[in-house]
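[Primary structure, fold]
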Amino acid sequence: MRAPASDLPIIFENVSVVAGAVTILNRVALTLAPGAPTVLIGPNGSGKTTFLRTAMGLTPPASGRITWGGHDSAPPTRRAIVFQRPAMLRRSAAGNIRFALKTAKIPRPEHDARIAELMALVGLDGLGERPARRLSGGEQQRLALARALARDPAVLFLDEPTASLDPAATKALEDVIRAVAARGIKVVMSTHDLGEARRLAGEIVLLHRGRVIETAPAASFFTSPRTNEAKKFIAGELLV
């Protein structure tokens, strides 16, 4: 797999996203740079999903500016996103990946080897012929990851990928995320689970009411948070 870096850094310059009378992101200024995973945390409704969609290029900002690798407009050919409940195509697990390879215009002679590589990476060896919709929830999430990785992205966005998974499935998916990051692919993910954030993050971004409240290396964020909101959130208190 190749992980081109031309889309990085992704820079948000006072970006706001508005839906009707509701401001979902409020003057967000943040840089997503190459390196260890960036993990977004914050209460429900804080803007995590909208941030991921905007960084992917799916949701346009109402104001502000986003650049991908220094460019104001960059096609999302080197970015991929996996949503919390990814849809499975009505075909086999391998067929789902083959479809992604076709849409990414990967040469047909490479398909079988790439499918085998991706299935092995996500721990689905031997399940290639199984109908994708008959896989367990955790297996479907890992297949969705493999399908996203078929695009050879430089940046992979994950929206609460372990939500509703049991501990064994969560660990399996976290292992895949670590393997992806080790290949040099920038992972940007949201999670509701502070334990998961501690395990995976190189950088933490705390969002609340559409604003970036605090961003810091994970170790210092959890040991010495700077803001009252971060202290409360780590302690399990509600942010309102």
The first strand starts at residue 10 and ends at 19. Strands lie at 10-19, 22-32, 38-41, 63-68, 79-82, 155-159, 186-190, 203-208, 211-217. The first helix runs from residue 48 to 56.
